[in-house]
Amino acid sequence: FLNGRIDLSQAEAVMDLIRAKTDRAMGVAIRQMDGNLSRLIRNLRQEILDALAQVEVNIDYPEYDDVEEMTQRMLLEKTELVRASVEQLLQTASQGKILREGLATAIIGRPNVGKSSLLNQLIQEEKAIVTDIAGTTRDIIEEYVNVRGVPLRLIDTAGIRETEDIVEKIGVERSRKALADADFILLVLNQNEELTVEDEALFEAAAGHNYVVVLNKTDLETKLDIDRVRELAGENPIVATSLVNDEGLEALEEAIKALFFAGDIDAGDATYVSNVRHIALLHQALEALNGVTTGIQLGMPVDIVQIDMTRAWDLLGEITGDSVQDELLDQLFNQFCLGK
Ligand SMILES: Nc1nc2c(ncn2[C@@H]2O[C@H](COP(=O)(O)OP(=O)(O)OP(=O)(O)O)[C@@H](O)[C@H]2O)c(=O)[nH]1
Ligand SMILES: [Mg+2]
Asked: Which of 166, 167, 288, 297 stands 20 to 30 A from 96 (CA)?
C-alpha cells in the first residue's frame, strides 16, 4: 500500500481474507483484493471530478447565456448517476457484512431450556457451562460456527426471566439487547413444560426477525401445546431436538441453511461492501450527494453546491486511501498485528 501497488481497500481485503470464516466470505475478500471495489470507487470519483471540472469551465468560459442553468442540470445528472451507484453498493452491504462477520444469532429462551447446550452442540465443544440450575448463563458467550455455509456468530444469552439476582439481572438486560441487535434468532423452548407467558413474550420479541423455534428435550414427555407454538411461530420453521441425545441437529442445520440460502447468498461476481468503515463512508458520501441535489433544488449558488460535491469525492477517496489521515492508516494496519 505504501508503495502504491494496492490501495487501502485492497489492503483491508487481505485482512478480511485472513479472517474469512467461510468460503463465501473468502470469495468476497478475494474479489475486493483484486480491486473490484477500488475500480468502482475510482470510476465514481472520476465522474465527480469531471463534473467539478466542468463547473469550473462553465464558470470561467460561459459559452451560453444560460450557463448557470446548464451547470446545474449537468451537476444534477452527474450526482444522480453517482448516487445510484453508491446506493446500489450500499444494498450489498447488509449481505456483505453478514458474509464477513457472520449472522448475529441470538439464542434466546427461558432459563434451563437448553440454550447453552445448543451452543455447545453447534460448535461441537463444551464452551458454555451447562447445569440444571436455572440462571447458569449470566453473561453473553459468543462463538463462530459455519452451519452448512451459513456463517453464524452465535450468542448464548442469559435465560430471560424476572429476577432479583443482580448479576442475573444484568445478564437478562444483555440478552434483551442481543435480541434487539440480532440478525437471526434461535428461540428455544422446553417441550417438557407448558408454554408460559414468558415464552409467549419471546415470540413477540422475535417478531420481525428471522427465527427458528427449537423445541428441546424431546426425550422427555411432551407437555407443550404444539398447535399453539405453530400458531405463534407462523411461517417460521420449528425444529424438535433432544440436545442431550444429539438428536435433531441435522434438521436444525438444514432449516438454517434453507432460510439463508433459499435464494442463495451467492457471492458470485458481485462486488460486496462488507467492511463497516467502507459502509460508513458510503453513507456519508450519499449524504453529501443528497446535499448537492437539495442545494441545486433550493437554488443555492454553484460554489456552495461544489463544497458538497467535493466532500463526496473526499469521502469516497477515504475508501481507497487516496484521501486519508495517517492516524487512521496506523490504526488500520495495527489490526494486522492483533494475534489471530
Ligand atoms: N432431558 C433433557 N435435558 C436437557 C436437554 N438439553 C439440555 N438439557 C438439560 O437441561 C439443563 C439446562 O441446560 P442448559 O443448556 O444449561 O440451559 P440454558 O437454557 O442455557 O439455561 P440458563 O443458562 O440457566 O438460562 C441441563 O441440565 C441440561 O443437561 C435435552 O434435550 N433433554
Ligand atoms: Mg445457559
From this structure: 288
Which cell goes with 194?
407448558
Q: Does residue 130's CB lie within 6 angstroms of at least one atom of ligand 1?
A: yes
CATH number for 101-261 (one of 3.40.1550.10, 3.40.50.300, 3.30.470.20, 1.10.3210.10): it is 3.40.50.300
The runs of H, that is alpha helices, within 262-334 are 276-297, 302-320, 326-334
- Enumerate the CATH 3.40.50.300 domain ranges in the chain, comma separated: 101-261
Residue 45 Cβ inside 6 Å of ligand 1? The answer reads no
In the chain, which segments carry CATH 1.20.120.430? 8-92+270-337
CA of residue 217 to ligand 1 center, whole Å: 8
Top mutation candidate among 108, 116, 117 for ligand 1, by most atoms within 8 Å of CB = 117
Going from the Cα of 248 to the center of ligand 1, the distance in angstroms, rounded, reads 15
256-285 b/e with 16+ CB inside 10 Å = b? beebbeeeebebeeebbbbbeebbebbebb
**What is the 324 CA–ligand 2 centroid distance (Å)?**
45
Q: Between 177 and 66, where is the model more confident? A: 177
Task: Look up residue 336 and give its amino acid.
Answer: F
157 lines ligand 1 (CB under 6 A): no
Q: How far is the CA of 189 from the centre of ligand 1 (A)?
A: 10
Higher per-residue confidence, 98 vs 236: 236
Q: Tell me: domain 8-92+270-337, CATH 1.20.120.430, correct?
A: yes
Which ligand lies nearest to the CA atom of residue 111 in the structure? 1
pLDDT in tens, 294-325: 999 998 988 889 999 999 999 999 999 988 77
The residue whose CA has the least distance to atom 14 of ligand 1 is: 114
